[in-house]
Amino acid sequence: MFLNKRKKITEQIKQSFGNIKEEKFYFQNIERYYRNKKIIGDSKTISDETALDLDFDDLFMYLDRTTSKVGQQYLYYLLRNIHADQSKKAIKEQLIHKFINDESFRLKVQLTLNELSEHECLYLPSLFQEKYLSPPKWFFILKFLALLPIVFLLLVPVSQYFSLFLLAALSINFGIHYWNKSNLLQYIGALPYVNILFKVARNLSKEDDLLLLDATIGAAIKNAEKVKGGITFFKTNSGMENEFTSLGWALFELVKIPFLLEPLVLFRTLNKLDKRRSDMDKVYSFIGKIDVLISIASLRKGLANYCEPKIAAEKKNLDFTALYHPLIEDCVSNSLNIKCKSVLLTGSNMSGKTSFIRTIGVNIITAFALNTCFAENFLVSKTDIMSAIRISDDLLNEKSYYFEEVLRIKAMLDRAEESESCLFMLDEIFKGTNTIERIAAGKAVLSALSAKNHIVFVSTHDIELADLLKEEYALYHFSEEIKDRSVGFDYKLKKGKLTKRNAIKILSINKYPKIVTEEALRVADELSNTNK
C-alpha cells in the first residue's frame, strides 16, 4: 500500500512540473510567515495597496509551483519583500537548471518536501514568530496536583476516606486538563509537524548541491531538534493505519488526564521553542528556499518566453524587449529603453496604458524575487515599487476618492525624499478633482517624484501635462484605430504624446444622438481655440 501511494504521489508531482496549480489558496494562512517576518536589511515590502493594484493574489496563484506549504509561504514572503534574498544568485541558478534537467534529483527532493504539504503546516511559523501563551500565576501548583492522585491511591488501603480525596483530586485534574485544551488548540495544528520539519531539513541537508545554499544549516537543525522530545508528545492519531494504534492513543489520553501531563508538557515545550526561534526560522527558510527554486524551475519550464534579468549598476535605468504580462492571454508585448527619465503615457480608455504600467510592476517583482522576467531581455536598476492605480472611496471612514488619492500620493512623496531608488506607478493622477487644479497639482507632484534616483510611470488623459513635463518625462502613448463603425486597439507603445482625439467619434459610433455629438464637437473646438 505504501509503495502504491508513493508511486501515485511521484506521478502527480511529475505531471505537475511546468503547470499551474489546481488547488485552493488560503491566503490568510499563506501570508502568515510574511506578516510576522522582520524585514531584512534595507529592503522594503510591497504595500497592501500596491499588491491590490497589481492583482497580487492572482499573480501569486500563477507563479506558485511549490510542493510544500513551507515553500508556498516562503515564496509569498519573497514576492512581497523582493530584495530579501539576493545572495548566492549563481548557486541558485545552478540549482534551478539542475531541477529542470535532472528529473530524478528533482523528484527525490520534491518527495521529501511533500511531507510538509498538509494544510496544517501553514501554522508552523506561529511556533517561532508569534508570542507564546504565558502560564497562569497558579501554574506552579500543577506539579503538586499531578502527584495527588498517586498519593491518595496509595493511601486508600489505609482508610477508605482517602478514596473521596482521590475522587476530588481526579475531578480537579480533569477540569484543569480540559481547561488546557483551549491553550493546546492554538498549537495542536502545527506541533505534530515540527519533527517532520526537522526530518525534511535533515534529509535535504544530506544533498551536497542543496547544502551550498547554507553550509551551517546542520548546526541550526541540531539546535532546533532539542525540542523534539516535547513535540513527540503531541503527535495526533490522525491518519493512523489501523484501529490498534488509534486505541493506543485513546488509552494514552486517559493516562494524561489524572497526571496533568498535557499542560505541564505544553508550557515546557513552549519554553524550549522560545529559546530556539532563530534556529527554527533558519531551518524553515532553508526548506523554503529549496522549494522556491523548484517552483521557479517549474515556472520557467512552462513558459514559451522568459529571461533572467540584468541588474544595472547605474541608477534610473530600465531597458526591456518584448515585455508581456503573464496573466493576460495572448498579451501584446512591448519594448522600451529609458535612462534618467520617467515616462508619461497618454491614450484613451482601454488602449492599454494601465495594463502596461502593471506589466512593468509585475516584472520588477519577479526580476528581484525570482530572477525571472516575462520578456526577451530585461535590465533594471535596483528599485522598490509603489503605486496609486486602484483607488476607491473609503465609505467606512468617510474618505472621498480624492482624499484617498491624496493620502496615497503623500506616501509616495515621503518615499521620494529617500535616496534609494523607487519606481512610482500612477494611473490618472488626481482625477478626483477639477481640470485646472488637477493639471497644476499633477505637474508639481510628478516633477517631485521624478527627482533624485526615482522613475515614474504615469498615465493621463491630460495632454497639457505632457506639454508641461516634456523636458522631465519621456512621452509615449497608446492609441485606437477607428474603421467604419468599429474601434480597435493594437496595444502597442508609441513614441510621443497622443495627438488624435477620438472620444467624440466613439460616441457617434455608439449611436449617440446627432444633436449631442455635434454640440460636443462645437464645444471641443471652442475650448481648443481658447487654450491656444
TrEMBL record:
Record-annotated DNA mismatch repair proteins mutS family domain positions: 340-525
Gene3D superfamilies, per this entry?
P-loop containing nucleotide triphosphate hydrolases
Specify the taxonomic lineage. Answer: Bacteria, Pseudomonadati, Bacteroidota, Cytophagia, Cytophagales
Q: Which Pfam families match?
A: MutS_V
Q: Does the keyword rRNA processing apply?
A: no
Q: Which UniProt keywords apply?
A: ATP-binding, DNA-binding, Membrane, Nucleotide-binding, Transmembrane, Transmembrane helix
Q: What is this protein called?
A: DNA mismatch repair protein MutS
TM stretches of this protein:
138-155
